[in-house]
Amino acid sequence: MSLAVDAVTLLAFVPAALALNLTPGADMMFCVGQGLKSGPRAAVAADLGIALGGMVHVALAGLGLGALVAAHPGLFDLIRWIGVAYLLWLALQALRSGALPAAAPPGSARVPCSAPVAGSKKRSIPSSEATISRPPASTGP
Q: How many structural domains is the chain composed of?
């Protein structure tokens, strides 16, 4: 199995990926919000975290997650319920802390907090799966 991507697929993927990533959306608003609240370093850190989340999408697509979910539909529900449990855990942590956290001092930066923003983008998951994952090779005619 070759891991090389043919030129036609690459020429189709790059403009589509750029169009999806350059349009304003949740990612851009998150970066702008972080920049306005904590300065340029926080905005760059948010951007790096979002890029990290995008790389996770591409890696999962390349590993065949889409084909696996297509072959086992119950797996999608499992992944979805794991996400629900994670969000509930985050909500409980926020409720337990009581007050709102203090704003980060200007110039501080946190990359990991922005990766879930990229992970939750509904449009990037199908586009990654459609362009990166490959159907299994058939063994017969």
A: 1
